[in-house]
Design a protein that fits this description.
By secondary structure, the protein is α/β, with parallel strands linked by helices. The protein folds into 2 domains: 1-103, Rossmann fold (3-Layer(aba) Sandwich), CATH 3.40.50.170; 110-215, Rossmann fold (3-Layer(aba) Sandwich), CATH 3.40.50.170. The chain has 6 helices and 11 strands. An 8-stranded mixed sheet has the order 3-2-1-4-5-6-7-11, with helices on one face. Strands 8-9-10 form a 3-stranded antiparallel sheet. Strand 2 (31-38), helix 2 (44-51) and strand 3 (56-58) form a beta-alpha-beta unit. Helix 1 (15-25) packs parallel to helix 6 (165-188). The longest helix has 24 residues, at 165-188. It is globular and about 50 Å long. Bound molecules: 5-O-phosphono-beta-D-ribofuranosylamine. Residues 12-16, 89-90, 110-112, 137, 176 line the site of 5-O-phosphono-beta-D-ribofuranosylamine. 5-O-phosphono-beta-D-ribofuranosylamine is lined by residues 12-16, 89-90, 110-112, 137, 176.
Length: 215
């Protein structure tokens, strides 16, 4: 198959991985998932990948002396697949500046909030606690700032009376499964660039919060 070579990094369930697999298989993405790499052998996403006939690798961070040693092994593994795009899909590791710089402009993450709001963990509960009117998710290029790189696309859901963190998380997850494959699709079609002034789609500079998926 021609097209871009994608490597996906996971630590857990891999439902975002599944959404990307489904869009690759549907022919929407001009690329293939060359490998799925997990830092946890028990990650269910490895089963999803194997079921889809995708090569899997486990790299246990606990087997390495420090963060940089792990990241260097991870880079070697990723580069052995000649990745054009590296997709973090629930990869629960903080990455070193060395890693982030190595994949500058070709490293994606998805975060369950409308960045720059609610970086870090427990975003759904925090959105409720802050009395937000809406909540959502963001796909962004990764830079050295944690959960802080330039946004590519966002999708939002209204917070309604009686909402709780579980319900909100489920709705946001559904949105994640729409925007993550779309961002990958754009990248693989050569439509998306990280430039000095921000992210461009088809040559047009996107707003700081990225493209906004309309309901
Ligand atoms: C998602 O909520 C994503 O936003 C966050 O990690 C979670 C991964 O879920 N970064 P899954 O493994 O894709 O189901």
């Amino acid at each position: 198959m021609s097209g871009k070579r994608i490597v996906v990094l996971i630590s857990g369930s891999g439902s975002n991985l599944q959404a990307i697999i489904d869009r690759v298989n549907a022919g929407a993405i001009a690329g293939e998932i060359a490998a799925v790499i997990s830092n946890r052998a028990s990650a269910y996403g490895l089963t999803r990948a194997a079921d889809a006939g995708i090569e899997t690798r486990v790299l246990d961070h606990k087997a390495f002396a420090d963060r940089l040693a792990f990241d260097q092994a991870l880079m070697e593994t990723i580069d052995s697949y000649a990745a054009d795009l590296v997709v973090l899909a629930g990869f629960m590791r903080i990455l070193t500046p060395e890693f982030v710089r190595h994949y500058n402009g070709r490293l994606f993450n998805i975060h369950p909030s409308l960045l720059p709001k609610f970086k870090g963990l427990h975003t759904h509960q925090r959105a409720l606690d802050e009395g937000e009117r809406e909540h959502g998710c963001t796909v962004h290029f990764v830079t050295e700032e944690l959960d802080g790189g330039p946004a590519i696309i966002q999708a939002a859901t209204a917070i309604v009376a009686g909402d709780n963190a579980d319900a909100l998380q489920q709705r946001v997850h559904q949105l994640e499964h729409r925007i993550y494959p779309l961002a990958v699709e754009w990248f693989c079609a050569g439509r998306l660039q990280l430039e000095a002034q921000g992210v461009t789609l088809d040559g047009d500079l996107l707003p700081g919060s990225g493209y906004r998926l309309q309901e």
